[in-house]
Amino acid sequence: MPTTQLIRILTLGGISFLTVLIFIPIFDRFLHKHKLGKQIRTSESAPVFAQFHQKKEGTPTMGGVIIWGTVLFLALLFFILNHFFDGFFKYLNFVDRAQTYLPLAALFFAAIIGLIDDLLGILKIGPKGGGLKISHKLIIYTIISAIGAWWFYFKLEWTTLYVPFIGNVQIDGWYFPFFMFVIIASAFSANETDGLDGLLGGVSLFAFGSLTVVAFALHRYDLAAFSSVLIGSLLAFLWFNIYPARFFMGDTGSMSLGITLGVMAMLTNTAFLLPFFAFILVLETISVIIQLISKKFFKKKVFLSTPIHHHFEARGWPESQVTMRFWIISAVFCALGLIIFFLARYL
């Protein structure tokens, strides 16, 4: 059974990868034809960012559509075919009420909101022509997280958190705000990390790869299959998103990936391992928080620019070097997270 499921999971990832490779040239032509390009922030509001990224002005954005679009397309396709044909399509269907309804819904709704934000930015609508304000995004994250928390707490009756080497800890009503915090933090962090070509896509690959292993170990095979499909589409997307990027992920990609990452961590009850699986996301957010606090209370900067990947750019690191080194750090911490998971589970 586990071997059969492993083959199924890998097959779905491969199908997703090939699907993106087939359709991405069409999508690429569409983005360039309609000039759906990204607007770069002005030098007054972000001087370091503008200095290094002004040349990217006009590069097509909303590339994240190909990621979540492929996942939803394959989920719907195999779900429908499963109702008409037995055997192979039942084998490929990964839509399951207990395991994948919530991450699929979170992926979709977050992606649509991010898509709207991207379109506002392209049309130069919003603060300084940059789409939604951060405060507006936080409100949206809060609403989505509250819906998810309600589902987990009242519908699924989840009230415990798994703490490695300790076990399940009963937190009752505190589960609701904890769930919201995880989702909001993961969404915000993903958005902050998406600032260099291939950065978020690469670290997300490691994070979702780790959660796929966790889901498989917990025998949640449909959830692992869902994550594998997401990984397949991400991997093909990265082929075109690494430096110099053919197009950007956009908020429709970062928002959907961040929220889905948080939902998967809660579904596998590995929220306390998420800082390992998403270490770079945590690092990026902490750098922003430290910078804001230092500027407000001490009137000086700790970093040359934030999020922290821009700090290293300002220190002279080439963009591709920052990305690759962050990928390496992400891989190391994901491996540490998996080691802790298996040690805590089997010792």
Describe this structure as you would to a colleague.
Strands 1-2 form a two-stranded antiparallel ribbon. The protein has one domain. It has 14 helices and 2 strands, in the order ααααααββαααααααα. The chain has helices at about 1-35, 45-55, 65-85, 90, 100-120, 135-155, 175-195, 200-215, 220-240, 250-265, 275, 280-295, 310-315, 320-345; strands spanning about 160-165, 165-170.
Secondary-structure map:
Layout: H1 2-33, H2 47-53, H3 64-84, H4 88-92, H5 101-122, H6 134-155, E1 160-163, E2 167-170, H7 175-193, H8 199-217, H9 221-241, H10 251-267, H11 274-277, H12 279-297, H13 308-314, H14 319-346
Antiparallel strand pairs: 1-2
Helix pairs in contact: 1-3, 1-9, 3-5, 3-9, 3-10, 5-6, 5-10, 6-7, 7-10, 7-12, 8-9, 8-10, 8-14
User: What gyration radius follows from the Cα positions, in whole Å?
Assistant: 20 Å
Number of strands: 2
The best one-word shape is globular
Let me know the average pLDDT.
Answer: 89
Can you tag this structure with a few keywords?
70% helix, mainly alpha, 14 helices, 347 residues, two-stranded antiparallel sheet
Short note summarizing the structure:
70% of the residues lie in helices and 2% in strands. The chain has 347 residues and is mainly alpha-helical. Strand 1 and strand 2 (167-170) form a beta hairpin.
